[in-house]
Amino acid sequence: MLPFSKSAIIGLGAVLLVVGTEGLMFIKTLGPAEKTEEKEVTIVEGNGVSEIATILKETGLIQSEKSFKIYTGLSGAARNLKPGLYLIGGASIPEIVGMLEEGPVARVTIPEGLSLYEIDELLSEEKVIVKGSLVALDMKVIEEKYWFLEGVTSLEGYLFPDTYEFLRGSDPEKVAEKMLANFETKVTPLLHKDNKNVKKEVIVASLIEKEVPHPEDRSIVAGIIYKRLAADIPLQIDASVCYAEKQAGCVPRKEDLSIDSPYNTYKYYGLPPTPIANPGLDTLEAAVNPETSPYWYYVSDPITRETIFARTLDEHNENIANYLKK
Description:
Blueprint: H1 6-19, H2 23-28, E1 39-43, H3 49-58, H4 65-75, E2 84-88, H5 93-102, E3 105-109, H6 116-125, E4 163-167, H7 172-186, H8 195-211, H9 218-230, H10 238-244, H11 281-288, E5 297-300, E6 307-310, H12 313-323
Antiparallel strand pairs: 1-2, 3-4, 5-6
Helix pairs in contact: 1-4, 1-5, 3-4, 8-9, 8-11, 9-11
């Protein structure tokens, strides 16, 4: 269920005040129609309240046309109903009116580096999906549609950051497919057509996205990651520890570095089991085209966001003292 809009609350209060006892029966008809499944409804430019009420009643989304017309009149929403294609199901008249006032399409920008959990929350705030539904989406439903998802256990890393237009109240599967199709179009030309390598490249890109602020430093860090993997040296990436604890942008404490999680790259060797964020195109390109360098270590200056590289552990510890312990 979507929350009541401000006008919905005002309108409902107005109804109670105006119609009195006789309105109690009327109030019942403001509730959702019984066993209403999600349906597409098109409101055409120029449709008035009466026409919209008829459309909603014939579609089985409201109990009473009269109740819809009275409610929109008393709430002051009658002049604010916007045309377009809507997905509506299991909603009361006040909720439907709120949706029609907001308009059918949510334009949402997914920034680079958000996690699956953060994208889910952002989309739920925009009323595109029900909170938690994207995170809970069964991979079996969609993995066969995209070659790069074979053997992948999570959408994490594959929801391409971009600006999208979604219908409010969308099926999370359709939302995921829109972002995955965008990933396929824009990203897969960069990637190796080998699923094992693709998984590795996307995971590495996600680590770089969260670790390295400056784009020009990312291919160097990619080279360091691959070099440490080949030498069987722990990656020791703070961002993966933060992901293990579901804390965006955290600074791990000493005790955090010993948590028992496959995402703890201080304790466990190799890459984490999944990406830790959804990387952008430039970062994915850096992961696919790592730069060879003499460096084995790096830190990011928290003030300038510059990446400071080191060849030896002694150099690295000196950089930590100079830049992270100011």
